[in-house]
Design brief:
By secondary structure, the chain is of the alpha/beta class. The protein is built from ten helices and five strands; from the N terminus they run E-E-E-H-E-H-E-H-H-H-H-H-H-H-H. The longest helix has 15 residues, at 181-195. The chain starts with 6 loop residues before the first strand and ends with a helix.
Length: 216
C-alpha cells in the first residue's frame, strides 16, 4: 500500500452482523471500501485486502480459523469482540493481531486501527491495552531484568515505548510528543534494534516484561 492510497478492508464476521454499516464514511481519510466474507473465509484467497477485521464472540474459537484462511499471506488482522478478559486479549496479541473491545471505540478509531495495522502496528483499544498490561504484570520478568532492558533506551525512546504499549501508532505518538511521524518511526527502528525485537508486537512484549512467557 502506498501512503497516498486509502485502504481496502475485509470484514470477516464469524457470528451475527457487522455493527458498523455506515463505516467508512465517504470522506474517511484512511479507508476507501469494506468487503464482507463469511466463514470459512474462502473469499480471502481471492480478495486483495490491506487489513482484515474479524468480528466474533469468542476469538479463541474464531481467530485460529481466520489465521488458517490467511495462510501466511502477511495481511494484518484486527479482532473485534466483546471479550476483554486478559487471557483472550493476550492470545490474540500473541498471534500478531490488534484487538478492539466492543463499545470501547468509535468509527474514527476503527479507521485509525486499520491504518495502524497496515503500517505494521498492533493496535489495541483502551480496554484491550489494560488487559494486556494486566497479563504482562502477572507474567513479568524480574525487576532487575526489566531495569536493564529499559536502560538500553533513551528517555525519549522510553516515552515512545510507553505510548506504543498502549496501542497508539506512530502518528498518534507524534501528536502526543510533538514530533513528526517520520521522527517517531526513526526512533521505533532504533528501539527495535536495541531490544532485538522483530516487530512492534515483539517490542511491546519485551517492554512489558512478558516476552519470556508470551513469545512463540
Amino acid at each position: 500500500m502506498r501512503s497516498s492510497q486509502r485502504l481496502s478492508v475485509v470484514v470477516a464476521s464469524a457470528e451475527g452482523t457487522w455493527p458498523h454499516d455506515g463505516w467508512p464514511a465517504p470522506d474517511d481519510q484512511f479507508v476507501s471500501r469494506v468487503l464482507r466474507v463469511a466463514p470459512p473465509y474462502d473469499g480471502l484467497r481471492e480478495t486483495v485486502a490491506d487489513v482484515v477485521m474479524l468480528r466474533c464472540e469468542d476469538p479463541a474459537v474464531s481467530f485460529p480459523g481466520l489465521l488458517a484462511a490467511l495462510d501466511a499471506r502477511g495481511v494484518p488482522a484486527i479482532v473485534v469482540s466483546g471479550r476483554q478478559d486478559t487471557e483472550t486479549v493476550v492470545e490474540v496479541f500473541r498471534g500478531g493481531a490488534g484487538y478492539l473491545v466492543e463499545g470501547d471505540y468509535c468509527d474514527e478509531m476503527l479507521s485509525g486501527a486499520a491504518m495502524a495495522a497496515a503500517v505494521g502496528h498492533t493496535y489495541l483499544s483502551p480496554s484491550a491495552s489494560a488487559a494486556l498490561r494486566e497479563g504482562a504484570r502477572r507474567m513479568a520478568a524480574t525487576d532487575d531484568a526489566m531495569g536493564r532492558l529499559r536502560a538500553l533506551l533513551s528517555p525519549r525512546e522510553q516515552q515512545i515505548m510507553e505510548l506504543l504499549s498502549t496501542g497508539l501508532g506512530a502518528q498518534q505518538i507524534g501528536q502526543r510528543l510533538t514530533l513528526s511521524e517520520k521522527t517517531v518511526r526513526n526512533n521505533l527502528s532504533n528501539i527495535y534494534a536495541k531490544l532485538d525485537a522483530r516487530s512492534g508486537t515483539d517490542a511491546v512484549l519485551r517492554w512489558l516484561g512478558a516476552t519470556p512467557v508470551l513469545r512463540t
